[in-house]
Amino acid sequence: MGLLDKVGDAIKKVGERGFEKIVETKDRHQIKMAILQQFPSKHLKLLCKRYGGGPKEYDEDSWSGKKTIRKLTESDFMNYAEWHINLEDVKTYALQYKIRISEILKEEKEREKKRKPEKELSRIAKNQSNEFKKVVDLMKQFKPSRDYKEEYGYHTELQGWLKAHFKTSEVEHTTGSSRPDIVIDGNIAIEVKGPTRSQDLKTIADKCIRYTQHYEHFAVILFNVEVNEGLYQEWLTGINNKFPDVEIIRT
Fold first, then answer.
1. Checking DSSP bridges between strand 247-250 and strand 217-222, what pairing results, if any?
2. Residue 186 and residue 206 in one domain
3. What is the pLDDT of residues 51-74, one digit of tens each?
4. Contacts of 14 (CB under 8 A, 6+ apart)
5. How far is CA 126 from CA 19, 22, 122, 230, in A?
6. Same domain for 105 and 122
7. Do 127 and 110 share a structural domain?
């Protein structure tokens, strides 16, 4: 078993639009996570500081803007590096500070040799697109058992609904401000927002930018939209223009 295989569930299986990039992008993300696992806590923090500054030392309420100071953990720095620092910068830092990654780089080369041909990649991507269409259709059909006033209950019930229809797929509820609410087979990301106010709409564009880099498909489901209709339509037009592959579902 190679070092990359030992990273296990901590590694997210990711994709990128474009058939010829699907496997390559998955590999690169897994390689980056395997390298980050080798970083001592001190260097993980220094890496984050060098490339972007690192995670925020506070949580901010998206509605009131109130900030709550919190103590950062190693998981926060790992999460920041995963989502904000590219593989080449991680490699450069590791080599500069003599962090032992030679076995991982060797396995990276082996993976490059074993990648599937373009025809096979096209078949995989087509299957993934069909699965995403089914997910979107199911989310449009979803009727929650009650009128939820918060997101957690809504996306917990939504997760159960999707899980019942994708019995052979991995439907997981993820946690953390930089992760989508629901992920299916490490390839389809779903974000839940509600009750949805104007401030919440502002955060969607940022999530579109970040999540489409790590997942092949991304959908947003909005419930209890409490926004002026004209403003909502203007926002929706902007999102559709900039992120035509992102599915917005309003319930």
1. parallel
2. yes
3. 999 998 887 765 566 788 888 999
4. 25, 26, 29, 186, 187, 214, 215, 216
5. 9, 11, 6, 36
6. no
7. no
SS3 state of residue 250: strand
User: What's the CA gap between 82 and 38, in Å, rounded?
Assistant: 13
The whole-number pLDDT of residue 14 equals 37
Q: Same domain, yes or no, for 128 and 242?
A: yes
Q: What is the mean pLDDT of the chain?
A: 81
Other C-beta atoms within 10 Å of 152: how many?
Answer: 11
pLDDT tens for 203-235 read 898 888 888 888 888 999 999 999 989 889 989
Higher pLDDT, 124 or 167: 167
What is the domain count for the chain? 2
Q: In what order do the strands lie in the sheet with 247-250?
A: 171-173, 182-184, 188-193, 217-222, 247-250
Alpha-carbon gap, residue 99 to 40, rounded angstroms: 9
Whether 122 and 224 share a structural domain: yes
Domain C-terminal end among 114, 136, 161: 114
My answer on whether 100 and 123 are in the same domain is: no
CATH at residue 153 = 3.40.1350
Residues with Cβ within 8 Å of residue 129, at least 6 apart in sequence: 217
The reported pLDDT for the residue numbered 132 is 86
User: What is the percent of the chain with per-residue pLDDT over 90, rounded to a whole number?
Assistant: 34
Strands 67-69 and 58-60: antiparallel
What residue numbers bound the domain in which 54 lies?
3-114
- 71 and 156 in a single domain? The answer is no
Residues 164, 98 within the same domain: no
Q: What is the pLDDT of residues 182-194, one digit of tens each?
A: 888 888 899 999 8
